[in-house]
Amino acid sequence: MILKLQLVVAMCLVMFSSLHGGTMIVRVVEENNGVCASGSDVFCVFNYTIEMEFQGETGNFDYLETGTRVMPPLHESVMAANNGQLPRIFCMLFPVEKSMRIVHWENNDPENNNPPEPRFPKGVGGMGVPENCVVGWIVGDKVYLTYGFVGDGIYGYFATWDCDEEISANQPQPAGCTPWYGGDEEYYIVPLARMKNGETFTITRDFDSTDGDMWHSHSTYTITFNPK
Q1: Is there a contact between 56 and 66 (Cβ–Cβ < 8 Å)?
Q2: Starting from the edge strand earliest in sequence, which strands make up the sheet with 88-107, in order?
Q3: Which of 111, 105, 104, 124 is nearest to 176 (CA)?
Q4: DSSP output for 58-127
Q5: What is the rounded distance in angstroms from the CA atom of residue 171 to the CA atom of residue 161?
Q6: How far apart are CA 135 and CA 124, in angstroms?
Q7: What pLDDT digit, counting tens, does each position of 113-151 carry?
Q8: Which pLDDT band, with edges at 50, 70 and 90, does 69 fall under?
Q9: What 3-state DSSP class applies to 48?
Q10: What's the CA gap between 209 and 43, in Å, rounded?
Q11: In angstroms, rounded to a whole number, what is the distance separating the alpha carbons of residues 50 and 144?
Q12: What does the pLDDT look like over 149-195, one tens digit per residue?
């Protein structure tokens, strides 16, 4: 199964090379701090910073030509913004495992306070992570970014207890102090001209998430685009 997925991704990259318009490298830095109630006597406090890159080709690609590649699902909001017409794809940005890094990690869980591992998770929970790419859709003079790091950030790309058989086999189950992630918008909008002009630029997503007295989290995503 894994070999088949790798073959699909390889075919994707080969076809993108034949339609090459440019290269895009995107670095995402995720900062998250928060508190939450757990099932134990510990009131969870966490504070972390992680980062990683996504890379891919850019151009002006027909969605219908992606039949032999990883088929990105169409987002309803993107279709609506494009007046119901099938949009073209500007980029597909795939996660780069070797770029993953734990910059800072604090967690007061007395039993499970180690940071996630900077690698893709293995096992059932980690299936499909390398193919979980960001898709950029051309709508007028804008690019709508969906999936990948959009909305949920990058914490889910890192190997943690609940998504990695290798970790869960030799570590106790988390007591409840697991950092929360996700909750931003389902798509980001970036001017097409900025992604095409070859200049590096940055967007920031800064938001709070809460569930009353149960948990509260403040997240900041710093997303730097480096078109080549």
Answers
A1: no
A2: 187-191, 142-146, 134-139, 88-107, 43-61, 22-37, 215-227, 201-210
A3: 111
A4: EEEE-GGGGTTS--PPPPHHHHHHTTTSPPEEEEEEEEEEEEEEEEEEEE--SS--PPPBSS---SGGGT
A5: 8
A6: 24
A7: 889 999 999 987 788 898 899 999 999 999 999 999 998
A8: low
A9: strand
A10: 17
A11: 24
A12: 998 899 999 999 888 999 988 888 877 787 877 788 999 999 999 99
CA 131/CA 11 separation, integer angstroms: 12
Read off the pLDDT band of 104 (50, 70, 90).
Answer: very high
Record the pTM.
0.86
Residue length, the chain?
Answer: 228
H/E run at residue 35: strand 22-37
Q: What 3-state DSSP class applies to 44?
A: strand
Q: How far apart are CA 227 and CA 145, in angstroms?
A: 15
Closest CA to 120 of 153, 61, 164, 173: 164
**Residue reference for tokens 């894994």:** 2
Burial of 90 from C-beta contacts in 10 A (0-12 / 13-18 / 19+): buried
Is residue 32's pLDDT more than 60?
A: yes
Nearest partner of 96 among 55, 49, 146, 132, judged by Cα = 55
